[in-house]
Amino acid sequence: MIPANFNYHKATSLKEAIALSSELGEEAKYMSGGHSLLPMMKLRFATPEHIIDISKIEGLSYIKEDGDMLKIGALTTQTEMEHNTLLKEKYPMMGDAIWLTADPSVRNVGTIGGNIAHGDAANDQPALMLAMRATVVAEGADGTKSIPIDEFFHGFYMTALEPSDILTEIQIPKAKKNSGGAYHKVERKVGDYATAGVAVHVELDDNGICQQVGIGLTNVSAVPMRLERGEEVLRGQKITDELIEQVGQIASEDCEPESDLRGSEAYKRSIVNTITKRMLNKALERARQ
Amino acid sequence: MGKHNITMTINGESVSAEVDSRLLLVHFIRENLDLTGTHIGCDTSNCGACTIMLDGKSVKSCTYLAVRADGAEITTIEGVAAEGTNSHLQQAFHDQHGLHCGFCTPGMIIRSMDLLKNNPNPTEEEIRWGISGNLCRCTGYNNIVKSVQQAATEMAKEKEASV
Ligand SMILES: Cc1cc2nc3c(=O)[nH]c(=O)nc-3n(C[C@H](O)[C@H](O)[C@H](O)COP(=O)(O)OP(=O)(O)OC[C@H]3O[C@@H](n4cnc5c(N)ncnc54)[C@H](O)[C@@H]3O)c2cc1C
Ligand code: FES
Ligand code: FES
C-alpha cells in the first residue's frame, strides 16, 4: 500500500513550519512520528496534498519538572517516556499506559504530541491527560496558546488546534504528596488499541480525604471522555469500597461504547466498570505510599 | 509530485538517490537497493517483518517515508555481521532453531538488537514484551525467546572477556 501523491516538506524550526503551513493552507498536514498519519494515508483515509515534517525541529523533546508543572515536549517519543526516571518514580500512570501502547518499534517513533493531537479516543494518552488535568501548549500563526485539556478534544479526530497550530508542550500539574495515578486497558492482543481503558488520578489530604480526582476513559466514546459524575461522587469524600463500587457503576452507565470487532456494547460497559474500580484502588494504593 | 535528493548510510555504505515524497522506506531498501532481506509481511505496521535499525532504534520501515531517512544511519539484516560471519543473535537463532520459514527472522533479529542494547540481561517476560510487535507464524516463539537468551549470554561473556 502506497499513499496517494503528496508533496513532502521538511521544517527545521517552528517558525518555518508555521509559515509553510500558513502558505500551503488546509491541505497541509504536520507529521511527527507519522505512526498514526502514515497508516491512514496508506489506506487513503487521509489524502493530504502536503506533509510538513516537524520531527527534525530541535528542542521539542524533553521531560522536566519546572515550577509546579511537569513539562513534556511534543516530540518526545513514547520510548523516551518509557525509559525516563522522573516519570518512572513520580508518574507511574505514564508507565502503565506506555507499556500497553502499540509495540516497542512503534513507540520508538510515535510521539506524545502526535498521540494527543490526533484527537482519537482510541489512543491512550488522551485519557491520561484528562485524568491529570493537562494543559496543551500550541504555537501557530496567531501566536502561542494554552488550551486546558477539557477544551481540547472537539470531535472524532477534531481538536482545538487550528491547521497551522503546532502542539509544542504538554503541561501537567506536578505530582503532589499523597497523590497517585493508574492506567489500564483491556486489549484483544498485545499492541492493539484499547477495547476499553481507564485512567485515574487521585489527590488526598493528610486525613485521606479526596481533594481532587480525575478519571479519563479510552475508546468508549467518539471523543476522549472525562467521567464527571464519577469524579463528583468522590471529591471531598473519604474513598470507601462502597463509593468505588458506585463509581464503577456510573462509569458503565455514562460511557458511550459501540459494539464492534473488539466487543459488544454490554461487554465494554462491563469491563469499564471493572477497570474503573481496579484503577481507583491502584491509584489510592499509590497515593497512600 | 515532489522529488527529493536523499543521502543515507546503509550497512556502512553511503547511498544517494532521488525519491518521490510518497516512497516508503521499505520499498526503497528492497527495490532501489536490492536489499531483500528486509521483508514485507502485513504492510500495516503490525507484523514487524520490515523492521530495520534507524539511527540505533528499531523501526518498521513500511511505516516510514524514505525521504525522512535523509541523513540517517540504517542497518538491515544484511549489515548486522561481516560477510560470511554471524552475529551472536544470528548464531543463536541458528543454534536454538529460532526460525522455521525464516520470514520473520530479519525483523526479529533487528528488534532483538535494540532490545539487548537497552536491556542486556532481559527476563523471559521482558523478551516476550520486547518482541511483541514482531509476529511469527511458525515457531510459537519459544525458540525465539531461547535464541535471544543465548545471544544475551554470549554478548555478556564477550563483554567480560574484553574488560
Ligand atoms: C501498529 C500500531 C499500533 C498502535 N497502537 C496504539 C495504541 O495501542 N495506543 C495508542 O495510543 N496509540 C497507538 N498507536 C499510535 C501511535 O502511538 C502513534 O505513534 C501516535 O498516536 C501518534 O504519534 P505520531 O508522532 O506518530 O503522530 P503522527 O502520525 O505524526 O500525527 C498524528 C496526527 O497528529 C498531528 N500532529 C502530530 N504531531 C503534531 C504536533 N506536534 N502538533 C500538531 N499536530 C500534530 C498530525 O498532523 C496527524 O494528524 C499505534 C500505532 C501503530 C502503527
Ligand atoms: S510489513 Fe511492516 S510491520 Fe508488517
Ligand atoms: S519462522 Fe516463519 S514466520 Fe517466523
Care to describe what's here?
- The complex is a heterodimer of chains A (289) and B (163).
- Chain A has helices at 14-24, 37-42, 78-82, 85-90, 92-99, 104-107, 112-117, 125-131, 228-234, 241-254, 265-288; strands at 7-10, 28-31, 50-53, 63-66, 69-73, 135-140, 143-148, 153-155, 158-159, 166-173, 179-186, 196-204, 210-218, 225-226.
- The model of chain A has no long low-confidence stretch (mean pLDDT 97).
- Chain A has 289 residues and is an alpha+beta fold.
- In chain A, the strands form four sheets. In chain A, strands 4-5-10-6-7 form a five-stranded antiparallel β-sheet.
- Chain B folds into two domains: 3-79, Beta-grasp domain (Ubiquitin-like (UB roll), Roll), CATH 3.10.20.30; 88-156, [2Fe-2S]-binding domain (DNA polymerase, domain 1), CATH 1.10.150.120.
- Chain B has a five-stranded mixed β-sheet, with helices on one face.
- In chain B, β1 and β2 (13-20) form a beta hairpin.
- Chain B is globular, with a radius of gyration of 16 Å.
- The mean pLDDT of chain B is 97.
- At the A-B interface, β1, α2 and α6 of A face β4 and α3 of B.
- One FE2/S2 (inorganic) cluster (FES) binds next to loops of chain B.
Topology:
The complex is a heterodimer of chains A (289) and B (163).
Chain A lengths: L6 E4 L3 H11 L3 E4 L5 H6 L7 E4 L9 E4 L2 E5 L4 H5 L2 H6 L1 H8 L4 H4 L4 H6 L7 H7 L3 E6 L2 E6 L4 E3 L2 E2 L6 E8 L5 E8 L9 E9 L5 E9 L6 E2 L1 H7 L6 H14 L10 H24 L1
Parallel strand pairs in A: 1-3, 2-3
Antiparallel strand pairs in A: 4-5, 5-10, 6-7, 6-10, 8-9, 11-12, 12-13, 13-14
Helix pairs in contact in A: 9-10, 10-11
Chain B lengths: L2 E8 L2 E8 L4 H8 L18 E4 L2 E4 L12 E3 L12 H8 L9 H14 L5 H7 L11 H21 L1
Parallel strand pairs in B: 1-5
Antiparallel strand pairs in B: 1-2, 3-4, 3-5
